[in-house]
Hints:
mainly alpha, 21 helices
Amino acid sequence: MSMMASPNRRFWTAMTFLAPNILGVLIFVVFPVVFSLVMAFTNWDLRRHNMFKDESLSFVGLRNFADLLADGGFRRYLGNTLYLMIVIPFSIAGSLIAAILLSKDTRGTRRTFLWLIAGSVFVISTVGLVVMGLGGSAMAILLCGVAAAILLGGVFGGVTVYRTLFYLPHFTAGVATFILWRRMYNPETGPINSAVRPVVGTLEAIIATVPTWMIYSVYALGLLMVFAGTVYGLHRLRRLWDDGEVGTRSVIMGSVPMLLPAITAMFWQYTQSLWWLFAAMIAVAVLSQLGIAVVRRRMFTCPAGEGSGSALMIGVLLMTGLFTLLGLTVVVGNLPAMVQAPDAPGLDTPSWIYDYHWAKPSLMIVMLWAAIGSNNMLLYLAALTNVPQELYEAADIDGAKPLQRFWNVTWPQLAPTTFFIAVMSTIGGLQGGFEMARTMTEGGPAGSTTTLAYFIYIEGFETGRLGVAAAASWMLFMLVFAVTMFNWKFGNQYVNE
Length: 497
């Protein structure tokens, strides 16, 4: 009898110690989640359901979800959230580059001592310019001088100084950092515009003297490079398909994001003849690769879904680069109308967060700055130390160049870390944006920086529509869950390959 009672006594003793944690989870996690799910199917509105009004609470079924899907504002805020997430590939790449640079010791090399001399002269010169009263025109040089000072610190202290300086912003409170960036983005007195203003004036003077045909030639060259990059990506996928590394379904998955920049360029053209020209170029690019695949005999076969992670990774990376190139090309194409036309407004420094078109890019710059030296960099640093040196030695024996060493040795070994960072960054991107928008822009101008998280806050705590806010929260959860499952399905295959 005592032996039977002993396990029960141990069980209840353990439960006594675990009870505070279990009760905390039930009260502060499980109950709010279940309560919010029930609340999403009600018409709960604090303006109508409170102690001063006798209006009863009622269930409305899926009406809150249907209203959100039909609401143009909700779709717009979803678009803002997805737009801000464009910075994720750049932040991952920046964290990887920073980790690679910080994995090398910089002390004692001949090159670093040359930088030491140049950096010292640069810092002394820029400080002298500011002291002499040339703060506005010398601000750009001063910012470069700060970078030189960081370089000097790395020369004396080695890679430890660099790692500390890169990771230091991660310890700073988010709200304090956002307030600082808001001051830096001030169009009149901010240090960013003070540094950019002389550069913009010089650039405007140069553009005014350049022939218009030359600018449009650069514009046309940029569009051709976008299509050339698309053709290169399709050709690379077709070669992988021919070698049996990716399947047919995987090629289609990788081609879809790859074609988006070219399709966007096609719809940005207002002339019908140019529209048909770009449509024909896209069709030729796709059909030519299909024709080659049909005519040439496939060397190796594989399942249709084989290599889906690799194909999707190539497509997303190329899409990011081509969209960046396309944006710069459009800016070049608009320069004649901004500078050389008779009623041209001229070039001016951006208004950053106070301008409708610049607000989201301004927030993306802050996000990129914060992400490069964040935990992602530390994860990559840890992963780089675990790459077997035997693989590098074998690559050196085969005569691999630095880029080949990275692509064939380092990058495959970093695939699990990259997959984890991509999943967590995607989840954070869908859920984030509230603190930054609340502190820097208050969701403006004209709702251009209002994200889904900020929209939920507005609905729940400003307008008091708790039912709608709960429904929006669960729609955000379903979106995060779907994107995570997609990443897990195809990104995990890339890791396992």
